[in-house]
Amino acid sequence: TQLLEQSPQFLSIQEGENLTVYCNSSSVFSSLQWYRQEPGEGPVLLVTVVTGGEVKKLKRLTFQFGDARKDSSLHITAAQPGDTGLYLCAGRPRGFQKLVFGTGTRLLVSP
Amino acid sequence: GAVVSQHPSWVICKSGTSVKIECRSLDFQATTMFWYRQFPKQSLMLMATSNEGSKATYEQGVEKDKFLINHASLTLSTLTVTSAHPEDSSFYICSAREEGGTYNEQFFGPGTRLTVL
Question: Cα–chain-centroid distance for residue B14?
Fold first, then answer.
């Protein structure tokens, strides 16, 4: 059973378009992280959200934590080719010591 | 801050040989490090949790005698793939948890690509 489901699994868009990636679970998380991974490299931490309903912005990226702390979303405005990569959400469900990763969303932004 | 390095970044070896991968936290101490394996176009799969000064905790299905983990200091963990076979070829990534960090965040190394011929 996958604790964190991401959708869509793959997204191919043109430069300048907007997109949203979803990370959903039936479990409650004390915090959720979003990572971006480029081919052949390790994941890079983008943001951590900890409070239900919290919204964090990182330039053109907007992250939201669900009110019930079971889901999160990542919205990218005016996507650029440099945004291309694998986006992963991750978190520790209550009672878990280990970080659980989402299924991943592969984003391709074409010029 | 919070930089994790891995060495080597890639390695090619013959079937039956052993390969050691190092993971270092460069600017913080990590009593807990993690080893992941990633197949092409897939998410990360946790292999084991490495605890400084004690035995590693392996995930179900991961052979502890094949994937030897040593966490001898607060800044270094090693993963040794023993008697490697072609099916062990993969991208191995370590991460370190910054103890005392605000959210116990994990920071990842750049990964090691292992190819077993």
Answer: 20
Mean pLDDT across the stretch B63-71?
A: 93
Task: Residue A58: name the closest of A48, A69, A71 by CA.
Answer: A48
Task: Give the Cα separation of A71 and A23 in Å (integer).
Answer: 5
| Cα Rg, chain B, nearest whole Å | 13
- State residue A98's pLDDT score: 79
User: Which among A25, A37, A54 is the top mutation candidate for probing chain B, defined by the most B β-carbons within 10 Å of its own β-carbon?
Assistant: A37
Please state, in angstroms and rounded to a whole number, the distance separating the CA atoms of residues B43 and B45. 7
Mean pLDDT confidence for B96-108: 78
Considering only CB atoms, B113 lies closest to which of A31, A40, A102, namely A40
Mutate to test the interface with A, among B44, B47, B59, B108 (most CBs of A within 10 A): B44
Q: Which positions in chain B have a beta carbon within 8 angstroms of at least one beta carbon in chain A?
A: 4, 6, 34, 41-44, 46, 49, 91, 93, 95, 102-111, 113
Distance CA(B109)–CA(B96), nearest Å, equals 8
Indicate whether A1 pLDDT > 60. Answer: no
Q: Are A65 and B116 a contacting pair, CB within 8 Å? A: no
Residues 6+ apart with CB under 8 A from A103: A2, A4, A5, A6, A9, B43
pLDDT digits (tens, 9 = 90+) for B14-27: 999 999 999 999 98
Contact A100, A52 (CB under 8 A): no
- pLDDT score, position B106: 86
If you measure CA to CA, which chain B residue comes closest to A89? B43
